[in-house]
Amino acid sequence: MNLNIMNPYIQHLDRIEFLITLACTGRCRHCSEGDHAGCGVSLDGAAAASLVTRVAENFSIESLMTFGGEPMLHPEAVYAIHRAGRDAGIPKRQVITNGFFSRDAVKIRTAAERLVQSGVNDILLSADAFHQETIPLGPVKAFAAAVLDAGGAIRMNPAWLVGRDADNVYNRRTSEILAEFSDMGIAANGGNVIFPSGNALKYLGEYFDRDNLPVNPYEESPYDVRTISVDPDGSVLGGNIYETDILELIETYTPSERRTI
What we know:
With 261 residues, the chain is α/β, with parallel strands linked by helices. The chain has a single domain (15-247), classed as TIM Barrel, CATH 3.20.20. It is built from seven helices and ten strands. The chain has helices spanning 45-56, 75-87, 105-117, 137-149, 169-182, 199-203, 246-252; strands spanning 15-21, 63-68, 92-97, 122-125, 154-156, 159-160, 192-193, 227-230, 235-236, 239-240. The strands form three sheets. The protein has a six-stranded parallel sheet, covered by helices on one side. It is globular and about 55 Å long. The model is unreliable at 257-261 (pLDDT under 50).
């Protein structure tokens, strides 16, 4: 860490995340964010890339992630961010995508190639019973195959209901979908267990104990910020990267000013 930045609440920063857009091609009943529109505000790629460079010059950043919504609805921003991460020497550069952003075979292949060329080295593909209620598997498989052809690293990132070993109709369907990708040579990571908020609580409430809901596992302590997460409108750490330099936002951050991500 640069000794000129001594904010006691941000001493261990090692990760940057960008929520590219809340727009999505899916309408998933498990989504913790609630219903998504097909279009909406998206992050400016040049501003985001500049943030990556500035922060990586001052902190030992270990990982960088872009996600959504569906980040590949705005691929140029994704490419710009990961090029900056690659050039800054950030070791882990991840994208979470549902793999459905086009039905055009040429566009799908080009996007896969450019992701790999931009420096993404861990593509997490969200395919499971919930995504596939509204997202066709054909284009998703085409994208996955194109990533493999381009020499990229891709893993399945499924959502599990109640728990990974819970026996319910959704988990059984997810296992069937994962088997299809396994036949392509694509393994699954542990995925994530659905958190009861947004659509998940609205449509899957019967699976949760509403009187004993768990603590959100994605919330970190505002007194020990290890990840900065930038919203589609540029908001982060109580300010906005379009209005204030990110290093100033880091230096002046206090927990009371932090937005809940």
